[in-house]
Structures
1.
Amino acid sequence: MTKLNLVEALNLALHQEMEKDNSVLVLGEDVGIDGGVFRVTEGLYKKYGKDRVIDTPLAEPGIVGTSIGLAVNGFKPIAEIQFSGFIYSAFDQIISHAARIRNRSRGRFTCPLVVRAPYCGGIKALEHHSESMENIFIHTPGLKVVIPSTPSDAKGLLISAIRDPDPVIFYEPKRIYRAIKEEVNEKEYTIPIGKAKIVKEGNDVTVISWGAMVRECLIAAEKSNVNCEVIDLRTLKPLDIDTIINSVKKTGRVVVVHEAPKTSGFGAEIISLINEKALLNLEAPVKRVTGFDTVFPYAKMENKYLPDERIEKGIKEVLEF
Amino acid sequence: MPKQIAFKGSIEYLQILKENGKVDEKLMPSLNKNEIIRMYELMVFSRKFDDKLLALQRQGKIGTFAQVKGQEACQVGSCYAMKQEDWMFPAFREAAAFLTRGLPAEMIIETVAGDERGNKIPEDVNCFTYSVPVAGQILHAVGFAWGFKLRKERKAVVVFFGDGATSKGDFHEGLNFAGVFKIPIVFICQNNQYAISVPREKQTASETIAQKALAYGIDGIQVDGNDLFAVFKATQEALKKAKDGKGATLIECVTYRLGDHTTADDSSKYRTKKEVDEWSKKDPIDRVKKYLESKKYWKREDEEKLFKKVEEKINDAVIKAEKIGIPDVEDMFKYMYKEMPWYLEEQLQEVKDAGNGSS
C-alpha cells in the first residue's frame, strides 16, 4: 500500500495497464512529453514511447474518431479530452458512432474505447472548465459512464474501464484530483463497473451522490447530526439500482446531490426509479440539491452555484417532512 | 527583402479511357483481359442492382436508399485495386464498392429494407459498415489504418466520401492526422457535383478538391471518376505508396450522380435535364464497353449472357433478402453492450409482456 492522490492513482492504473497489455494506447493533447495538463499521463511517454502515448493535433473529434477506428481494429485506446468542456465537438463521434458500432454491425464490430476527461467545478477555472454535463452521455444508449470519487476507486475503476468491451466515458472530478490522499493498493485490481459503494452507513436519510460531491455530502451528513447513509454511485450507467433501493427501503428518506443543472439532471432519473420501485417506502418527497439551470459562473460566484450548505439543509428538510 | 514563395504546389489530372472508348496506352495500368471483363461485369451488376432496388423502393418493398448510378467506375475501379487484406470504409452510397469487395447482394437489400442484420459484414469481407452522418467515417478509417501501421502490417484502408464531406471538420481532421502520423490510407472523394441540392462550387472555393491534400502534407490527385482505368491506376499507386510507408493520398474522382440523392429526393428541382444528359454521355459503363468491343474482347452474345446472369443473381438476392423475415425483438436490445444491463432486460421484458416478443 502507498498513499496516493487521485491523479497519482489514475497514473498508476495507466502504467499498469499499458505494461500488461500492448494494445492499450493513450491519445490526446499534451498527453505525451508534457504528461497531461493535470499530469495524469506523467511518465507514460518515456516508458512506452511515441507510438503508444500519442500527442495528437488539437482536435477533439480527431482524437475520438481515430480512437474509434483503432478500437475497432483491436486496440484499447484511452482518449483524453483535456477538459470535459471541450468534449462537445467530439460529441458527434461519441454518440453517433462509438455508442452505436456494436449495435449497427450486429456485434461484428465493437468499440472498446475509454474517453477520459476532467470535469466539475470548484477550481476557479476559466469558462468551459467547470461543467458537469455527464447526463448527456448517460442519456445516450450504448455508453457507460463512470465517475470515481476516491484515489483507490479511481484506480480500480479506470482499469475496469480499459478492460471493458464497450465505450466508457470516464469523468474525473478535478476538484479533488489532489485534495485527498489515501492508501492505494500498488498491485493491480479492478472495481466492477455498475457497483455503487455505501461510504457511510446510516438509517435515517439516504444521500446519493457521485464525484467531488461525495465528500461534500459526507461533510454535510457529519454537520447535520443526522444518521445518514451516503451512497457513492461510482458508475452512473449502468446504475446500481439495488444498492439505492435497499437503502431507500431502510431509510424512507432521500436526498440526491449533483453539481449538474437541475432540469433533466441525473437526479430526476434516480427519483423516477425510486418512484417506480419503492414509492411506498418513502416517508418524504425525494429532495434534489443540485447546480442551477444557469451557465456555470466564473470564479467569484462559483461557491454560490455548487451544492454546499444546501446539502445539510436538504437532509434536514427530508427528515423533518 | 521581397516576399519569397513559401510554398508551391500543383495537382495532376489523370484520364486514361476517353468517352469514345479509346485509351492512352502509355498510361494504361497492367490489367489483363479477364480482369477488365470482371470489372465491367461488376459495374453492370451494380447498375442493374441499383435499378432493381429503385423498383423495389417504388413498390414500397424497401426503404430510402442512395443510388450509385453514374459512380460505378469510382467504386469498382478503386476496390478492384485493393487486396483482400485491405479494408474499405464506406459512406452511404457505396453498394458497388461493397459488391466489388464481395459483400453478398442480399445483405445490401436487407439493410435498405430496414434490417440491421444486413450490416453484419461477413468475417471474410474486409469492409466496415455504412456511416450515414457525413464524413464521420473518415476518422474511423484513419484510426483503423493507423492500427496497421502500429502493428507493422502491410495493409491499407480505402475510405469513401463525397464532395459535401470535404466541408466538414472530420474530413480536415482526418487528412491532418493522416499527414502528421503518415497513415496508410487512401481517401477517395467521389465528387459527384452535388451534396443533395448544393452544387460543388458552393461547397468550396478551391479549384479542385484534390488540392486540399497539399495543405495537410499528403499527396492529392484528380482523376476522371468516370474512367475505370484512371481510378484503378490512381488507387493502385496510392495503396502501394501507403503500404511502402510513404503516407496517405487524396484521390478526387470527378464524377456525376446520375440518379437523385436518395429515393426521397427529386433532383429536377435543382438541376437541368440538359446537364444530366451531358453527363450521361460520359457514362462510365458505356466507355468500358466501347473499349472492350474495340479490343474485340466483347460481343453482343457476351452482353446478353451477362445481362441474363446478372438478372438471375439479383432476383436470387431479392428472394434471399425477403426470406430473412423480421428479426426477433431481442435483437433491438442485445447488441447495445456485450452484457445486457438490468434496465435493458427490464425494457425487453416490457415489450415481451405487451405481446410483441415474437416475430
2.
Amino acid sequence: MSSPVRKDPAAPAFAIVNAGQPGDRPATPKKVPHKGGAANPSVEALRAKFGSVIGRHEVMWGDTTVFVERTKVAEVCAWLQSDPTQSYEYLSDVTAVEYRDHVRPIEVVWHIRSIKFRRFLRIKCEIPKDGKTPLEVPSVWPVWKGADWLERECYDMFGIKFAGHPDLRRILLWEDFKEGFPLRKDFPMRGRFSRSEQLKNALAADPEARYSMEEISIADAYGDLPLDMRKRLAGGEKVGE
Amino acid sequence: MGLITRPDQSVQTGSKAVSFNPVAQEGWVTTRLDFLVNWGRANSLWPMPFGTACCAIEFMASAASHFDLARFGMERMSFSPRQADVLICAGRVPFKLAPVIRRIYQQMPQPKWVISMGACASTGGMFDSYAVVQGIDTIIPVDVYVPGCPPRPEGLIYGIMMLQRKIMDERMSNTAIRDEMTPDPTSQLYIPPSRIDELSEPFGNSVHQTRSAP
Amino acid sequence: MTATRTVEVAISHQGLEPEMAGENMLINIGPQHPATHGVLRLVLELDGETVVRCIPHVGYLHCGFEKIGEYRQYNQIIPWTDREDYLNSMGNNVAFVLGAERLFGIEITERCTVLRVIAMELSRIISHLVWMGTTCIDIGAFTPFLWSFQERENVYKLLEGWTGARLTTSGTRVGGMIADVPEGWVEGLRGFLDRFPKTLDECDRMLTRNAIWVGRTVGLGVMSPQEALNYGLSGPMLRASGVDYDVRKDFPYLDYETYDFEVPVGTNGDVYDRYLVRTEELRQSVRILEQALKRLPDGPVNVDDPRVILPPKHKATSEMESMIHHFKLVMEGPRPPIGEVYVPIESPKGEKGYYFVSDGTSKPVRWRIRPPSYVNLSAIPKMVEGHLLSDVIAINASIDIVMGEIDR
C-alpha cells in the first residue's frame, strides 16, 4: 500500500474549481413536461450500436428511460461506461419495481450518470411474472464496483438474482430470514409471521454468528451458520472468486 | 450480617391476614445504610448508551455541554456493558438487533436498570413493519419509558430523575429487586407469546394485510 | 477480492480444529461499539495489527422504510424521511418533496425556494457538525465535540422555532412548507451566521495543524479518483478524491446555480482531505445562507394549487366546500399522474435521491431511497486494507455514515 503523504499539511489541500461560471453551468429544470421532450442522445447511440437489444424508450419528467433486453444489460452498461462518447462513469442506483398489477412485469432499474457530459439515463429491463422466466439479470459489478451492495440489497428485498455478482447474499436482513422478500407486493407490511413468532426467530439467532462465505474460509464458523445455509454449503455451493 | 431484620411476611390476626411493611421493621442502621448506598448509586449511574438511531443524537446532545449529563453523575459513558449500571436504549430496535441487546443486557452486572428512550424503543413507534421489535420490553425488562420521537434532552433527563427516585426507594431487605429476571425457557420471551400477539392484534396481525392498498 | 479459498475448506474441517490460515486473527467490531457510529459491524482479519480483509455487516437498523412508504400517501411519508438520515432531516424533507413535486408537476413559489435552500444548508451544517464532533472523539479530541454540539443547539433552536421540532422536523409539504418562518427568525439566523464562523475558526485552529490530528488522518483510506467514481462514492468522499462532482452544480435544483459558492475538491483522497473538504463546505454553506437571507422575497410560501394544499383552517371549519376539500385531501390524498421520477440532491453525505413510481393512486408503488452513505460504506473493505487496526476507526469515521440511512 503506497499512499501519497502530503509533505506540508499546512498547505491548502484542495483546489477550488467550479468557481461560479453561471454561463456554462446547467440550470434548475423548470416546468418539466410530464411526457415528451428531448431524449438523451445516448439512446440513439445505443440503438446504432446494439440494434434490437434496445427496446422502446420514453422521456418522462425530463428523464430518459430506455428498455434493454434482460440478458444484455451488462454488455450495454459496459459499453456505456467505457465508450468515450458516452462516459457513464457513475452508477447512482440499482433497484427494482414491482407493480400492484399482477400481470405487469417486474422491472429492474439502473440509474446511471455521466458526470462528463452531465447526462442521466435510466436503464430498465422487464422480467415477466409468468413463472417461467427466471428472476435473474446480469450483474453490472464488473463495470461499476459500486453495484456490489446495491445489487445485494435488490436481491435481499426482491429476490432478483444478479448473475456474476461475487457475493450475492442477504445484506439488510439476516441470512436465515424465513419470511421471504419484503418489497414484493405479496409480502404483507408486518411480515408473514405473528409478532411473537418473529421475536422468537430473532432471539434464536446467535449475535456472534458469521454469515459470510469468506469468513468461513478464515475461521471455522460452520457450526454457527443457520441450518439452511449449511444445507446449501453441503450441496457444494461456492461463492467467491 | 445481622443488621437486616427479616420479619415474617404476614401474621394471622383473627381472621384477617395483615401484611407487614418490611421497611417499617428495619432498624435505623439498615435504613441509613440503604439511603447511603442508594444515594451513591443514584448519583453515579454509569450509562451504557445503546444508541441506534435518532434518539442517540438527542442522547449525545444531552451528554454535551448544553444539557450536561455530568450534573447527574452520568458523564462517564460505559461502552462496555460489564461496567455499566443503566442501559439506555436510544432508538428503534429491529429484529436483527434483538439478540444483540439481549446479550448486552445479560452481560451487565446487577444492579442494573434500563431506560427505554423514545417511542420506537418503547412501542415500535411509527415503525410497525416486518423488521422492527414492537417495544423492547418484550426482550428485556424496562424500568423507565421516555416518550417522544425523539424525546428532548429534558425528557431524557426527567426519565433519569425518575430512575433516580426509583433507586432511592430500593431496600436491601427486598431481595426480590435483585433477582435476575429469567425469560420463559421455551420462547425466550419475558412476556407470554399469546400476550404479545394479543397486544399487536389491532394493528399487527399480518394475515389481514396481504397486498398494499391502492 | 482476494478470496481464493473456497467453501470446501470449511466443510472439510467441520468437527476438527479450525485451521487458521497462517496466524491471522479475526476481530469483530460492533454492532454495538462507540466508534462505529451506530450499529455497524465490521469483521476484520488481522495480520498482527494490519488489516488484511474487512467484511462489513449492515442491516442492524433495517426498519422497512421503503415498504412502509408503499402504504402511505405522499405527505404522510415525510415523517419517515426525517428518521432515515436523521442528521439531515430537514434536507431529506426538502429532497422528498422536490421529487414529489416533480411527480405532481408543481412549481413552487419564490419564497419557498429560498426557504428550502436555507433549510438544506442549515441541515448540512448540523450534519457536518455531528461528523466533526464524533470523528474528533474517535480520534481522541474531545473539545471540538463540545463546541460543535453547542453550535448544533443554536441551529436546533432555529429549527424548533420554525417547525416545532429539534431533530425530526417534517418541515415540508408537497407544494410548500409546514409554515413560514416566524417573526424574528431571520434575525436569529443572522446572529447564528455571525457567530458560527468564529467557532469554525476555533475548530480549525484546534485541528488542522494539530500534529496528532494530522498524524492520525493523513494518508489513510486513500481512494484514487477513478476508484472513487467506480465505487460510486459521492459527496465529500468523492470530492476529497479530486472528482469535481456536486449535484448542486452539475444537476442543480432550487436555483442553486444562481448562488455564488465554491465546491472544495481535495487532491489526495485521504481522511485528512475529507476533513478539509467538509470544513470548507461548512464555510460555503454559511456563504449560501447569507446570500439566501439577502434575497429572501416576500410572498406566499405554499403554491396556490388545491390539488395538494389544504384550505386554511378557518375556512375548513366554516365553509362546507372547504371542509370537504380538506377531508378528501387528508383521507384520500392527492393523486399524482402515472409516472416515475428520480430527483437527486446533494445531501451532506453525498448524492441522495428519491425515486418514485406512481400508478396514479395516492400512494406510491415504489418509494426508493438512494442512500449515499450506504454506497460510500461499501468501499470500506477497499479503504482499510493494509492499514492498522486503529486507523480503521479513523477511516470509518471519515465516511460519515449514518446507519438510519444505510439500513433504512
3.
Amino acid sequence: MSTPLLSMEGVSKAYAADAQILRDVTFKQQANEFLAIVGPSGCGKTTMLRCISALMAPDSGVVFHEGRTFDDPPPWLSIVFQDYNRSLFPWLSVRRNVALGLRDVGKGERDGRVAEALDAVKLGHAADLYPWQLSGGMQQRCALARSIVSAPRLLLLDEPFASVDAQTRIDLQDLVMDICERMSLSALLVTHDIDEAVFMADKVVVLSTRPASVVEEIAIDLPRPRDQLTTKETPEFLHLRHKVYTLVRQQAQ
Amino acid sequence: MARDIRLRALLWQSATVILLLALWQWAAVSHPAPYLPPLKPVALAYLSLLEPGNFLAIVFPSLYRLGVGFGVAVLLGTVAGIALGYLRWLDPWIRPVLEYLRFVPTVAILPAALLLFGATDTMRIFVIAFGSVFPVLLAAIDGARRGNAMLLDVARILKFSLAEKLFRVVLPGALPSIFAGVRIALSIGLVMMVISELIAANDGLGFYILRNQRLFQTANVYAGVLMLGTIGLILTLALLAIERRVLAWHRGWRGLADART
Amino acid sequence: MSAVSGAGGGMKAPEGLVAVLKGILGVLVAFAAWELVRQTGFIDKRDLPAVIDVLGAAFNGLTEGDMSLALLETLRSWISGLALATVIGIAAGIALAMLPGLELATRPILEFLRPIPSVALIPVALLVLGIGTSMQLFMIVFAAVWPVLFSTKAGVESIDPRYLETGRVLGFGRAELLMRILLPASLPYIATGIRTAAAIALVLAITVEMLTGRPGIGFYIENVRLNGLTAEMWGGILVTGIFGYLVNALFIALERLLLPWSPENRDG
C-alpha cells in the first residue's frame, strides 16, 4: 500500500502529571478515505485534532503527513471548527473570509475560485453579507467554503455540525459528503454523534475515555452514494451502528 | 406619532435654552459685572475667532499641537499595545511600570516637560501625547490579549505570516477596544492642550483665554471657552463617525451576541 | 474538591512570586533606561538627576515635611471636591433618569457643557470667584461631577423593570423604592463613575495649584522647578504618581469590599 495520508504513531499528550489526555494513539488514514473518530464526550478529541493539525506538538509519538513530520500545519490541510461564530473573521464579509483561504494566487483566479467554493456550499447569494448576518448553518457553510477553496487534500472536521439544529445538520452532512466525493477529498471527522460517524465514514475509530487511546477500528463498507433515509434503514447500517454504539457505551462506563 | 414626540422634545429643549439665554442677558444688563458680559459681545467675539486671520493666529496653533500630539499618541499606543498584547509573556515584566504610569495625574508631568523642552511646541506636543497615549496603549493591550484564540489557530492553518497575524487578526479584533481608548484619549488630549497653553505659551486658545481674563475682556474669555467646546464637540462627532464606519461589523456582531444572551 | 483547589493554590504561589520578581525586574529595567538616557548626554544631566537622587528627594520630602504637607493640602481639596461632586452627581443622575421630562429639557445644556475641556473654565472661575478655596473647589466639582452623573443615570436606566415591579408588589413607597432598589442596583455603575471622578478631581486639584499658586503638590512641583531643585521636582512627580495609583487601588478595594455582588467583582 502507498504512504498513508495521515499516520498517528503512539501519540501521547498530557497537560500536567495527573492530566493525561492522549495515551499512545495510533491509527492510519489512506488517501480518499473518510475517517470518523468517535468517543465519549470530553475524551480529548479536540486535543487530538490539535496534534493532528500540528497546532500542538505531542509529548511523545509522531504524526506523519504523507510520511513527513510538520511543526506547522501542512499546506494541504484545512480545518472546520465547531464554533463557527468564533472561527470566522467578524470584520470580513463572507466573500473575503473565504478569500483568506487562498492568498497565494492572482486576483482574477482567486475571485473565480472563491465564487466556485461559495457555489459549492450554496452561499453564492450571501457573498457580501457579514458573518453575523448569517444563520448558524450558513456560517458553518462559509467556514467550509474557506476550508475547501484552497483545494486541500485533508479536511479536518471538529464536530462541525454540533452547534446547529437537526435539519441543518442533515443538510450539512449531505453537503460535506458530496463535496468530498466531487473534490476527491479525504476527510477526518471528529464527532460524538454515532449515527453521523457511521453514516458518513469509510472507517470509524473508537476512542476510550480520557486518557484517550484507540479501542477499535471499524470498517464501514456501506455503498455510496448514501442516502439519509434508505442507507439508514439498511440492516448493515443498523448492525454497524449497534456495534459502534456498544463500544462507545462500554467506554463510558 | 414618533415625529410628534420629537417635535415636542425640540420645542421643550429650545424653550430651556432660550430661557437660560434670556436669564443671562437680563442679569448681564440689570446687574452689570465684569464676569457677566451681555450675549452680543460674546457672540461677536466668537464669530471673530472664526475670521481667517484670527483663526490662523489663535485657533490653529492649538489644533496643530493637538493634532500632532494626539496623532502620535494614537499611533504609538496602538502599535505598542498590539505588540505588547500579542507577546503575552512580556506582560508580567511591564505591567507594574504601566500600572504606575497610567495613574500618574498627567498634569504633574508638565513642570518636567517645561524643564526638559522649555516653553516650546515640542513641550506642548509631548505633554498632549503623554497624556493621551496611556488610554490607547492600555486599551490596545487589552483588546489584543482578549482576542479570539481560535482565530489565531485559523490563521496558522491559513499560513498567515507574523505581520498578517498582527494586522489581519489581532488589530481588527482589538479595534473596538482601541476606539474606546481613543475616545478617552481625545478628551485628555484636549485638557492637556489647554493646560499646556495656560501655563506656558504665547499663542493658542488657552493663551488667548488667559490673556483676555487678565485684561478683563470677559466676552473674549467666554468666546474662547465656547470655541474649545465647539472643537471638542466636532472632534468627538468626527471620531464617532469614523468609528461607526470602521466598526460596522462589530455593532451587528455584538448586537447579535447580546440578543442571544 | 478541596484537594483540587489545594493543588491549584500550591501551583499559584510560586507563579505569583515569579510574576512579582519579573515586575520588579521590569521596574529596574525602567530605572536602567533612565540612567542610560542620562549617560547619553542627550538631556542635560542637571535636568535628569540620578534615580537614587530622585528617590532620596521623594523620601526626604515625605519624611521631613514640605512635600507631605503639600500632599495633605491636595488631599484635603481633593476629598472635599470629590465628595461634593459625588453627592451632586448621584442626585442629578437619579433625577435625570427618573424624570424623562427634565432629561429632555436639559439635554442640550448637558451636551453643550460636556465637551468643554474642564480646565478651560479655570480662567472663568478666576474671574468670578478669584483665587481661593472656593474657586478650586468649584473647578474640582465641575470637572468630577460628569462621570458620576452619567454613570448614575446609566445605572438607574439599566435596572431591570422587574425589580421595580417586585418593589411595588412588596408595597414600597417612593422613598423605599429609591433607597432599597434604585440606589443599590445602580451602585456598581456609580462606583465606576466615582473612580473615574477621583482621578479627574486629582488632576484638577493639581492643575489649579500649579496655575494659581495655591498650596498643594501641584504648586510644590512647579515651585521646586522654578528654584532649580530638579531632584525634588522629579521626586514630587514620582510621589504624585504613587498617590494617583493608591487612590485608584483604594477605590477598587472599597468596591470589592462593599459590592461583592457587582458583576465587575465576580470574574476575578
